[in-house]
C-alpha cells in the first residue's frame, strides 16, 4: 500500500465506501464524480501505479478486471444497451489517482 493512495485507503476501509463487488483481489464501487448515469470503478487491491507499471504477473488482474466489468454491466442493466471500458494512463491521459483502475460507464438514454 502506498501511504497517500486514496484507493489503497478505500480498499483498506480507512475511507468509507460502499463496495458493490469485492473478492480477494478486486473491489468495485461507484465513482463519486460520475461522468455518465452509471460510472463504476474496478480497482485491484494490489497497488499498481499505472498501466505503465504492470508486469507479466499482473496480467491476471487486468483480465479479471475486464470480466468483472462485464458482469457489473449485466448486473447494472447496461450490458444490452452498451457501455464503455477505459483506463486513464498518466496525467496526460487523464489519470488523477495513481492506482490502476478501470472505468465502466454507461446508462445513457437511447433515441
Strand order of the largest sheet: 1-2-3-5-4
CATH superfamily: HIT-like
Number of strands: 5
Quickly name the level 1 CATH class: Alpha Beta
The total number of structural domains is 1
Give the low-pLDDT segments.
none
Average pLDDT for all residues = 94
Tell me the major beta sheet.
5 strands, antiparallel
The structural class is alpha+beta
Query: What is the helical fraction, as a range of percent?
Result: 10-25%
Strand percentage, roughly? 15-25%
Query: Could you spell the SSE succession in H and E letters?
Result: HEEEHEE
N-end to C-end Cα span: 45 Å
Architecture in CATH? 2-Layer Sandwich
Large-scale geometry: globular
Number of helices: 2
Notes on the structure:
- By secondary structure, the chain is α+β, with helices and mostly antiparallel strands.
- The protein has one domain (6-106): HIT family, subunit A.
- The chain contains 2 helices and 5 strands.
- Strand 2 and strand 3 (38-44) form a beta hairpin.
- The longest helix is centred in the middle third of the chain and has 17 residues, at 59-75.
- The protein is globular.
- The termini are far apart.
- The model has no long low-confidence stretch (mean pLDDT 94).
Topology:
Blueprint: H1 6-11, E1 19-22, E2 26-30, E3 38-44, H2 59-75, E4 83-86, E5 102-106
Antiparallel strand pairs: 1-2, 2-3, 3-5, 4-5
